[in-house]
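REVIEWER CHECKLIST
Item 1: Sequence provided? yes
Item 2: Single chain? yes
Item 3: Sequence as submitted:
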Amino acid sequence: YSTGYDSFALCHTARYDECFNKLWSKTFLSKEKANYHGNWFSEAVTQTLDGGFVIADYHEEVANLWPVIHKLDANGKVIWSTKLYFDVPIASATGYGSAEQFIATKDSGVVVFGNAKFHTPNVEEFYYIITKLNKNGTIVWSKKYNLPKLAINCSNGAVLSIAPNNVTKLSDEGYLLQLGNAIGNIFPNFIRLDVDGNIIWGKGVKFNCTGYNELTSGGDAVEDKTGNIYLIAIKNQIDSFYEKPTIIKLNKSGNIIWSKSFDKEGWIKNIELLKNNTIAVQYHHYNFRNNNNRSSNLISTLDLDGNILWTKVFSNSSWGNIYYFTQTMQKDIYNDLLVIDSYRSIFTKMSADSLQSCSTKDTTVKNGFTNIKFDNVWFPSEIGYKMADGELREFNNKRKVRILCGKEFYPISDLGNDTIFYNTNSYTLRAGSDNLGHNHKFSWSNGNTDSIITVTKSGKYWLAISSGYCTNTDTVNIVFRDEIKSNLQDQSICPYDSVLVQSPKVNAANFYWIKPDKSIFSQSDIWAKDTGTYYLMLDGNTDCKNIDTFRLFHHPLPKSSAGPDTLLCYNQSYEMQGKGGIKYKWIPAKYLSNDAIANPIAKAPDKQLYMLVVKNAFGCADTSQMWLKVKPKLKVKLSAETQSICSGEKVKVWANANGGNNSNYTYIWNNSAMKDSAYNVTRYSYSWIKVTLQDGCSEPVSDSIFIEVTQMPVAAFYTDPKDSASAEKIIWFINQSQNATKYTWNFGNGKGSNLSNPAYIYTDTGKYFITLVAQNTNGCADTAFGNIYIGEKFRIFIPNSFTPDNDLINDAFSVYGTGIKAYSYEIYNRWGERIFTSSTNKLSWNGAVENKGETVQMDVYFYVLKVKDIENSMHYFNGTIYL
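Item 4: Structure as written out by the authors:
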């Protein structure tokens, strides 16, 4: 069947017991391309020696279609499945394969016989493929036989096909492969293979397009105890379109012993080797010569030399069709033939001597399937069959299968369909007239053993009819209208809810509902949601449809409020603001002190969406939600422009802050609060600098940074000689610095030195400003300063007059010159009295008498001067001074 653009193949396998009761069934669904032609599923099934079964399904692989083999156990359970992949011998070709027949092997494995076709728009190739699987489904070996094209065209327009028709397992565990038409001597009609699929011999007859062919198609085959093989085939007369059923006997080497063709045109179907050493064949005869299109099916028996013993005609009607016949077994004794006509579902049982055990009965199945709707495609299947995709609805109909012929009449229990009675309180159940007059035993569910019973109560009743070792059972449900009790009651539910209202569980009754909006709900149980009155109706009853009613009401709903969305600092607690009901449930419950109260305490590490479910006194619920948003965790990290300074230097430190309430940051620098994230500090020794960050709602956070402080060196020096010297004289610079390793001298004239204690000779006179920079290993530096005077060797100037009138011009007597290290003098008047003596604090005389303060009168005065030069030589001078 097909749905839209896809087509599907169903492979259905069922097992029945000897009384034709079904034990189990298995259905496989294969999806394949819609443009594939034919039904790609195998009709072959075989039982393996371990009691299991092997069947074939198909799977699609890209553009190819290959068989998949399923192994079932005795109860129909799939044990394993093996996909068969056939190598594509033509580049860019597509192909498909088939599994036509199975033969069980001694090791509980199976040999699979099938075809493979590969084609492109211009090329086609055909192969016959045999594959051996072990009991676990593993491929043991696989053989591929190249076949000619499947058809040849004769000049008269006839088309003759070539294809393998049948495989027969032989007594030596080998196989006989029978083919269709042979082309010349190229390909044989029969191939005998050993147990591993190797060709032992091939036999065939030359083919031509005119006249009779020796053999044009093969079929079933049987082997007798001596190894002779009996085959069924068709002789074909091309120019007259007529075919004759044929039987051929071969010896072990494949040589023909005899062949037998029937006079009537038709097709031969199957062959059986009976226990009495005779051969039974079944063939179909058609009659086109008189244009009456009538046909019949025949069964003939022959002895082992090909002589016909008797012939029996069946299905004397238009296109009768015996599908299959076989020899039946009862208590290990083969004594009857069972003939099945699938066209009209007729089963006939006859003895091996052609005598029918009873009249042929038509057992065409009525209502024999469950109709399943898959999308818009209907197809029959067993009750309970499930499909993987699409909408599936089942409509169950009763199925009864019976076999009416045999030496012992097979019992059939049929109590009819389930029934409801509206105007009576009793009903008679009968075993059926077909079961009377035989040695049948009846057993009813109420313990009665008669062929009929009368029931007065609703219920399920069954009847078991036994005959010999076969038992057939049927069940029926009987319902009396007056016993149907619904017990419906009015109900109230929440507006968003629905309630399941069930009709009475009465097997034979079909109920439907009329909803408050007057619409009809066709199922027996209903999920009621809308308010109003619901009517329970009994389907099929025109007198008393209304069984019961009920009304549905709605409870009021609560109004849930989870409170406003709230923004919190990290790790801040918050009291939730739920309200609106008498019962509360917060979802999720995490980070809440209690999820079942209106106002739990929340402390979430990150944003969280909460849903609040509130319920009122009726149990009706309403929901609301709120966001609890949390600012990122407050963090601070210190950094500095440098973490190593010299003692007494300043260092700048920054606080890198994030998270929390950034508009309210406060920095506590060593116990000093400020808004500035930068901090300048002077350090004289090793120390930690700490900052604490606050934002007004988060827990304060801190960080510290270590500042390494290096002690300063001390720069100091003196010169030798000190203070002054004459030109061209060596000056020694004596370094007295401490904690220093590097020195930089500047001698005040653009010259310098990096030595610790350098020496230098000034060539020019003058005053020089000397600097010394002393550094330690960390680059910390200190500077010392000094002066030195470089002049002539000795020169002195002594004034001979001055005017102490306070006009700031020549107001005092003083001595000066070059090369002077120290000097002193005394002043005398004309009478020889000493009136002034110089000292370190009084090097100038202003005309006053010493210790009196009186200015002397204008006159001539005398001085006595002693001078020590820079080389410590003494010089003495005296003279007059005019005042």
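Item 5: Key structural point noted by reviewer: The longest strand covers residues 22-33.
Item 6: Recommendation: ____
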